[in-house]
Amino acid sequence: MEITAEAVRRAPKALLHDHLDGGLRVATVIELADAIGWTLPSNDAAELQRWFTAGAASLDLLAYLATFDHTLAVMQCAEHIERVAREAVEDLVADGVVYAEIRYAPELHGIAPHASVEAICAGIRAAEAAASTAGTPIVVNVIVCAMRTEQRSLEIAQFVEQIRRREPKVVAFDLAGAETGGPPSPPAEALSSARQHHMNITIHASEPPDLELISDALQHGAHRIGHGVRLQSDMTMVDDTVTSCGPLARYVLDRRVHLEMAPTCHVHVGAVPNLESHPIAAMLRAGFNVGVNTDNRLMSDVMPSSELWNLHRTHGLTWSEMEVLTINAVESSFAPLEERRRIVDSVVRPAYEAMVG
What we know:
By secondary structure, this protein is α/β, with parallel strands linked by helices. 50% of the residues lie in helices and 16% in strands. The protein has helices at 5-10, 26-36, 45-56, 61-66, 68-73, 78-94, 113-133, 153-163, 188-196, 211-219, 247-254, 263-268, 280-285, 297-300, 304-315, 319-332, 337-356, and strands spanning 13-19, 97-104, 139-147, 170-176, 201-205, 224-227, 235-238, 241-245, 258-261, 290-292.
Protein backbone atom coordinates (compact mmCIF):
# COMPACT_ATOMS: atom_id res chain seq x y z
CA MET A 1 0.00 0.00 0.00
CA GLU A 2 1.22 3.48 -0.84
CA ILE A 3 2.30 5.52 2.17
CA THR A 4 0.11 8.61 2.41
CA ALA A 5 -0.77 10.88 5.31
CA GLU A 6 -4.26 9.39 5.44
CA ALA A 7 -2.98 5.81 5.32
CA VAL A 8 -0.60 6.58 8.19
CA ARG A 9 -3.47 8.06 10.17
CA ARG A 10 -5.46 4.84 9.75
CA ALA A 11 -2.53 2.58 10.70
CA PRO A 12 -2.43 1.32 14.31
CA LYS A 13 -0.08 3.33 16.50
CA ALA A 14 1.10 3.37 20.11
CA LEU A 15 1.89 6.43 22.22
CA LEU A 16 3.86 6.27 25.47
CA HIS A 17 4.82 9.91 26.08
CA ASP A 18 1.91 12.33 25.98
CA HIS A 19 1.19 14.96 28.65
CA LEU A 20 -2.46 15.55 29.51
CA ASP A 21 -1.93 19.27 30.12
CA GLY A 22 -0.13 19.56 26.78
CA GLY A 23 -2.81 17.92 24.67
CA LEU A 24 -5.94 20.00 25.08
CA ARG A 25 -8.06 21.06 22.12
CA VAL A 26 -7.67 24.77 21.43
CA ALA A 27 -11.44 25.19 21.42
CA THR A 28 -11.65 23.56 24.84
CA VAL A 29 -8.99 25.87 26.27
CA ILE A 30 -10.97 28.87 25.04
CA GLU A 31 -14.30 27.56 26.32
CA LEU A 32 -13.03 26.59 29.77
CA ALA A 33 -11.01 29.80 30.15
CA ASP A 34 -14.17 31.79 29.45
CA ALA A 35 -16.06 29.74 32.03
CA ILE A 36 -13.57 30.53 34.80
CA GLY A 37 -12.75 34.09 33.73
CA TRP A 38 -9.17 33.33 32.69
CA THR A 39 -7.53 35.68 30.19
CA LEU A 40 -5.82 34.01 27.23
CA PRO A 41 -3.34 35.52 24.75
CA SER A 42 -6.14 35.25 22.16
CA ASN A 43 -9.68 33.96 21.97
CA ASP A 44 -9.34 33.13 18.30
CA ALA A 45 -8.59 29.42 17.88
CA ALA A 46 -6.11 29.81 15.01
CA GLU A 47 -4.27 32.67 16.68
CA LEU A 48 -4.11 30.84 20.01
CA GLN A 49 -2.73 27.72 18.32
CA ARG A 50 -0.01 29.84 16.71
CA TRP A 51 0.79 31.38 20.10
CA PHE A 52 1.17 27.98 21.77
CA THR A 53 3.35 26.64 18.96
CA ALA A 54 5.52 29.76 18.92
CA GLY A 55 6.20 29.25 22.62
CA ALA A 56 7.08 25.61 22.03
CA ALA A 57 9.39 26.50 19.15
CA SER A 58 11.22 29.28 21.04
CA LEU A 59 14.28 27.04 21.74
CA ASP A 60 13.85 28.04 25.39
CA LEU A 61 12.52 25.23 27.58
CA LEU A 62 11.38 27.61 30.32
CA ALA A 63 9.44 29.65 27.75
CA TYR A 64 8.00 26.41 26.45
CA LEU A 65 6.92 25.36 29.94
CA ALA A 66 5.34 28.79 30.48
CA THR A 67 2.69 27.97 27.88
CA PHE A 68 1.30 25.47 30.36
CA ASP A 69 0.14 28.33 32.59
CA HIS A 70 -2.93 28.59 30.37
CA THR A 71 -3.75 24.90 30.00
CA LEU A 72 -3.28 24.21 33.69
CA ALA A 73 -5.44 27.20 34.59
CA VAL A 74 -8.45 25.46 33.05
CA MET A 75 -7.66 22.08 34.66
CA GLN A 76 -8.17 22.90 38.32
CA CYS A 77 -11.40 21.02 38.98
CA ALA A 78 -12.47 17.40 38.49
CA GLU A 79 -15.11 18.21 35.89
CA HIS A 80 -12.65 19.99 33.60
CA ILE A 81 -9.93 17.36 34.08
CA GLU A 82 -12.35 14.56 33.21
CA ARG A 83 -13.42 16.38 30.05
CA VAL A 84 -9.83 17.00 28.95
CA ALA A 85 -8.96 13.32 29.49
CA ARG A 86 -12.01 12.14 27.56
CA GLU A 87 -11.28 14.45 24.65
CA ALA A 88 -7.61 13.44 24.60
CA VAL A 89 -8.56 9.79 24.15
CA GLU A 90 -11.17 10.68 21.51
CA ASP A 91 -8.50 12.55 19.55
CA LEU A 92 -6.06 9.64 19.78
CA VAL A 93 -8.73 7.20 18.59
CA ALA A 94 -9.41 9.44 15.58
CA ASP A 95 -5.68 9.33 14.82
CA GLY A 96 -5.47 5.54 14.82
CA VAL A 97 -3.85 5.04 18.22
CA VAL A 98 -4.64 1.63 19.73
CA TYR A 99 -2.58 1.91 22.92
CA ALA A 100 -1.54 5.00 24.89
CA GLU A 101 -0.11 6.09 28.21
CA ILE A 102 -1.07 9.61 29.21
CA ARG A 103 0.88 11.30 31.98
CA TYR A 104 0.08 14.10 34.37
CA ALA A 105 1.41 15.71 37.57
CA PRO A 106 -1.05 15.84 40.51
CA GLU A 107 0.98 18.70 42.03
CA LEU A 108 -0.15 20.99 39.23
CA HIS A 109 -3.88 20.61 39.84
CA GLY A 110 -5.84 22.29 42.60
CA ILE A 111 -7.60 19.19 43.88
CA ALA A 112 -6.45 16.19 45.89
CA PRO A 113 -4.33 13.70 43.91
CA HIS A 114 -6.86 10.89 44.31
CA ALA A 115 -9.61 13.15 42.96
CA SER A 116 -7.59 14.10 39.90
CA VAL A 117 -6.74 10.46 39.16
CA GLU A 118 -10.39 9.48 39.48
CA ALA A 119 -11.41 12.26 37.10
CA ILE A 120 -8.78 11.30 34.52
CA CYS A 121 -9.65 7.62 34.65
CA ALA A 122 -13.37 8.39 34.38
CA GLY A 123 -12.74 10.45 31.26
CA ILE A 124 -10.52 7.76 29.77
CA ARG A 125 -13.03 4.99 30.43
CA ALA A 126 -15.88 6.98 28.89
CA ALA A 127 -13.86 7.48 25.70
CA GLU A 128 -12.67 3.87 25.67
CA ALA A 129 -16.26 2.65 25.93
CA ALA A 130 -17.38 4.90 23.08
CA ALA A 131 -14.46 3.78 20.92
CA SER A 132 -15.21 0.12 21.57
CA THR A 133 -18.86 0.62 20.62
CA ALA A 134 -17.75 2.34 17.41
CA GLY A 135 -15.44 -0.54 16.52
CA THR A 136 -12.22 1.41 17.08
CA PRO A 137 -11.02 0.07 20.44
CA ILE A 138 -8.18 1.67 22.36
CA VAL A 139 -6.47 0.93 25.69
CA VAL A 140 -5.22 3.92 27.69
CA ASN A 141 -3.29 3.93 30.96
CA VAL A 142 -1.95 6.69 33.22
CA ILE A 143 1.57 7.66 34.31
CA VAL A 144 1.78 9.88 37.39
CA CYS A 145 4.59 12.46 37.39
CA ALA A 146 6.43 14.18 40.20
CA MET A 147 7.92 17.58 39.37
CA ARG A 148 11.68 17.92 39.74
CA THR A 149 11.34 21.59 40.67
CA GLU A 150 9.04 20.87 43.62
CA GLN A 151 9.61 19.15 46.95
CA ARG A 152 6.85 16.51 46.84
CA SER A 153 8.47 13.69 44.88
CA LEU A 154 8.41 11.18 47.75
CA GLU A 155 4.80 12.05 48.53
CA ILE A 156 3.83 11.50 44.89
CA ALA A 157 5.71 8.19 44.70
CA GLN A 158 3.92 7.01 47.84
CA PHE A 159 0.62 8.15 46.34
CA VAL A 160 1.29 6.09 43.22
CA GLU A 161 2.00 3.04 45.36
CA GLN A 162 -1.32 3.49 47.18
CA ILE A 163 -3.57 4.40 44.25
CA ARG A 164 -2.39 1.65 41.92
CA ARG A 165 -3.77 -0.94 44.35
CA ARG A 166 -7.32 0.15 43.49
CA GLU A 167 -6.87 1.85 40.13
CA PRO A 168 -5.24 -0.48 37.58
CA LYS A 169 -4.97 2.30 35.00
CA VAL A 170 -2.18 3.91 37.03
CA VAL A 171 0.83 2.03 35.70
CA ALA A 172 4.00 4.04 36.40
CA PHE A 173 5.89 6.83 38.14
CA ASP A 174 7.75 9.58 36.27
CA LEU A 175 9.93 12.60 36.96
CA ALA A 176 9.05 15.58 34.77
CA GLY A 177 9.65 19.34 34.54
CA ALA A 178 12.77 21.37 33.91
CA GLU A 179 15.80 19.07 33.98
CA THR A 180 18.91 21.22 33.58
CA GLY A 181 20.56 21.64 36.94
CA GLY A 182 18.26 19.02 38.44
CA PRO A 183 19.07 15.40 37.61
CA PRO A 184 17.11 12.63 39.34
CA SER A 185 19.54 12.64 42.27
CA PRO A 186 17.67 15.21 44.44
CA PRO A 187 14.49 13.08 44.64
CA ALA A 188 16.53 9.91 45.11
CA GLU A 189 14.38 8.92 48.09
CA ALA A 190 11.26 8.94 45.91
CA LEU A 191 12.93 6.79 43.29
CA SER A 192 14.23 4.44 45.96
CA SER A 193 10.68 4.05 47.24
CA ALA A 194 9.43 3.40 43.71
CA ARG A 195 12.03 0.69 43.18
CA GLN A 196 11.37 -0.84 46.58
CA HIS A 197 7.68 -1.19 45.71
CA HIS A 198 8.40 -2.57 42.23
CA MET A 199 6.86 0.33 40.35
CA ASN A 200 7.35 0.93 36.68
CA ILE A 201 9.61 3.97 36.28
CA THR A 202 10.22 6.33 33.38
CA ILE A 203 12.31 9.48 33.79
CA HIS A 204 12.58 12.54 31.56
CA ALA A 205 16.11 12.99 30.22
CA SER A 206 16.14 15.35 27.25
CA GLU A 207 18.21 18.37 28.26
CA PRO A 208 21.89 19.18 28.82
CA PRO A 209 24.15 17.86 30.28
CA ASP A 210 23.23 15.23 27.74
CA LEU A 211 24.62 11.82 28.71
CA GLU A 212 24.80 12.63 32.42
CA LEU A 213 21.02 12.92 32.71
CA ILE A 214 20.41 9.69 30.81
CA SER A 215 23.02 7.80 32.82
CA ASP A 216 21.65 9.19 36.09
CA ALA A 217 18.12 8.12 35.14
CA LEU A 218 19.29 4.58 34.49
CA GLN A 219 21.23 4.48 37.75
CA HIS A 220 18.05 5.48 39.58
CA GLY A 221 16.00 2.66 38.13
CA ALA A 222 14.40 4.02 34.96
CA HIS A 223 12.92 1.24 32.83
CA ARG A 224 12.35 3.74 30.01
CA ILE A 225 13.88 7.10 29.17
CA GLY A 226 11.65 10.06 28.44
CA HIS A 227 13.06 11.45 25.17
CA GLY A 228 16.72 10.36 25.40
CA VAL A 229 17.54 12.04 22.09
CA ARG A 230 20.84 13.37 23.43
CA LEU A 231 22.17 9.83 23.52
CA GLN A 232 23.30 10.67 19.99
CA SER A 233 26.34 12.39 21.47
CA ASP A 234 27.60 8.95 22.56
CA MET A 235 27.52 7.49 19.07
CA THR A 236 29.15 8.13 15.73
CA MET A 237 26.93 8.54 12.68
CA VAL A 238 28.04 8.66 9.05
CA ASP A 239 25.49 9.39 6.32
CA ASP A 240 22.59 8.89 8.74
CA THR A 241 23.97 5.52 9.85
CA VAL A 242 25.17 4.63 13.34
CA THR A 243 28.72 3.32 12.90
CA SER A 244 29.83 3.06 16.54
CA CYS A 245 28.51 3.43 20.08
CA GLY A 246 30.08 4.70 23.26
CA PRO A 247 29.58 2.79 26.54
CA LEU A 248 26.24 4.39 27.47
CA ALA A 249 24.75 4.06 24.00
CA ARG A 250 25.95 0.45 23.86
CA TYR A 251 24.32 -0.24 27.25
CA VAL A 252 21.00 1.23 26.07
CA LEU A 253 21.20 -0.69 22.79
CA ASP A 254 22.16 -4.05 24.27
CA ARG A 255 19.64 -3.93 27.09
CA ARG A 256 16.80 -2.70 24.89
CA VAL A 257 16.08 0.33 27.06
CA HIS A 258 13.14 2.05 25.40
CA LEU A 259 13.61 5.68 24.34
CA GLU A 260 10.39 7.70 24.23
CA MET A 261 11.34 9.90 21.27
CA ALA A 262 9.25 12.97 20.34
CA PRO A 263 10.88 14.35 17.17
CA THR A 264 9.04 17.66 16.73
CA CYS A 265 9.41 18.47 20.42
CA HIS A 266 13.14 17.80 20.13
CA VAL A 267 13.37 20.38 17.37
CA HIS A 268 11.36 22.84 19.44
CA VAL A 269 13.59 22.56 22.50
CA GLY A 270 16.78 22.77 20.43
CA ALA A 271 17.99 19.22 20.95
CA VAL A 272 18.28 18.87 17.16
CA PRO A 273 18.17 21.66 14.56
CA ASN A 274 15.48 20.05 12.38
CA LEU A 275 13.70 16.77 11.65
CA GLU A 276 16.19 15.94 8.92
CA SER A 277 18.99 15.73 11.49
CA HIS A 278 16.98 13.81 14.10
CA PRO A 279 18.69 10.48 14.95
CA ILE A 280 15.55 8.39 15.41
CA ALA A 281 15.62 6.72 11.99
CA ALA A 282 19.33 5.93 12.22
CA MET A 283 18.89 4.58 15.73
CA LEU A 284 15.89 2.47 14.71
CA ARG A 285 17.88 0.97 11.84
CA ALA A 286 20.79 0.27 14.21
CA GLY A 287 18.48 -1.74 16.46
CA PHE A 288 17.76 0.75 19.26
CA ASN A 289 14.42 0.33 21.02
CA VAL A 290 12.84 3.63 20.04
CA GLY A 291 9.24 4.79 19.64
CA VAL A 292 7.55 7.89 18.25
CA ASN A 293 5.67 10.21 20.60
CA THR A 294 4.02 13.62 20.66
CA ASP A 295 4.96 14.91 24.13
CA ASN A 296 2.59 17.90 23.94
CA ARG A 297 0.16 17.73 21.04
CA LEU A 298 -1.24 21.22 21.54
CA MET A 299 2.04 23.07 21.93
CA SER A 300 3.85 21.29 19.11
CA ASP A 301 0.70 21.10 16.95
CA VAL A 302 1.28 17.41 16.20
CA MET A 303 -0.43 14.03 16.33
CA PRO A 304 1.16 10.57 16.28
CA SER A 305 0.30 10.17 12.60
CA SER A 306 1.79 13.54 11.65
CA GLU A 307 5.04 12.60 13.39
CA LEU A 308 5.25 9.32 11.48
CA TRP A 309 4.29 10.99 8.21
CA ASN A 310 6.97 13.65 8.63
CA LEU A 311 9.56 10.98 9.44
CA HIS A 312 8.54 9.17 6.27
CA ARG A 313 9.05 12.36 4.27
CA THR A 314 12.39 13.26 5.86
CA HIS A 315 13.93 9.83 6.49
CA GLY A 316 12.09 7.50 4.12
CA LEU A 317 10.40 5.61 6.95
CA THR A 318 8.75 2.47 5.52
CA TRP A 319 5.61 0.59 6.59
CA SER A 320 7.82 -2.11 8.09
CA GLU A 321 9.74 0.47 10.11
CA MET A 322 6.50 2.07 11.33
CA GLU A 323 5.42 -1.39 12.44
CA VAL A 324 8.66 -1.88 14.37
CA LEU A 325 8.26 1.53 16.03
CA THR A 326 4.71 0.61 17.06
CA ILE A 327 5.65 -2.83 18.34
CA ASN A 328 8.63 -1.35 20.21
CA ALA A 329 6.25 0.97 22.04
CA VAL A 330 3.58 -1.61 22.81
CA GLU A 331 6.10 -4.18 24.03
CA SER A 332 7.86 -1.53 26.15
CA SER A 333 4.63 -0.19 27.59
CA PHE A 334 3.63 -0.64 31.20
CA ALA A 335 0.49 -2.59 30.34
CA PRO A 336 0.28 -6.18 31.60
CA LEU A 337 2.19 -8.66 29.46
CA GLU A 338 -0.99 -10.37 28.28
CA GLU A 339 -2.40 -7.05 27.07
CA ARG A 340 0.79 -6.20 25.23
CA ARG A 341 0.85 -9.56 23.47
CA ARG A 342 -2.82 -9.27 22.50
CA ILE A 343 -2.37 -5.82 20.97
CA VAL A 344 0.76 -6.80 19.04
CA ASP A 345 -0.52 -10.15 17.79
CA SER A 346 -4.19 -9.31 17.19
CA VAL A 347 -4.08 -5.65 16.19
CA VAL A 348 -0.69 -4.35 15.11
CA ARG A 349 0.83 -7.22 13.12
CA PRO A 350 -2.28 -8.07 11.07
CA ALA A 351 -2.84 -4.44 10.11
CA TYR A 352 0.73 -3.86 8.96
CA GLU A 353 0.86 -7.18 7.13
CA ALA A 354 -2.10 -5.97 5.09
CA MET A 355 -0.37 -2.66 4.36
CA VAL A 356 2.93 -4.22 3.33
CA GLY A 357 1.01 -6.70 1.19
